[in-house]
Amino acid sequence: MLSSSEKKVLRGEAQLLRPRVKVGKQGLPEGVIEEIESALSRDKLIKVRFEGDRDQITEWITEILEKTAAQLVGRVGKTASFYREKEGEERE
Length: 92
Prior knowledge:
Blueprint lengths: L3 H11 L6 E3 L6 H14 L1 E6 L3 H15 L2 E6 L2 E5 L9
Parallel strand pairs: 1-2
Antiparallel strand pairs: 2-4, 3-4
């Protein structure tokens, strides 16, 4: 688990990122989950842009967290940032 100070640092880093994955009104088909998995494996910290209402976005974020073992770093409007450490690697 990330501490609140670690999340704060990651949120700052995430501000400079562009969304890597866009989740449209079709939701989270397996292909989108695979794309998120791939982006997390490559970059550790990613941004995802959602198209939907607030409740639907919250459900999608929960599903992403469950399926990818990532951690939510922050959410602003329709964009959320996720972080996942690489296997065997620890954050400084």
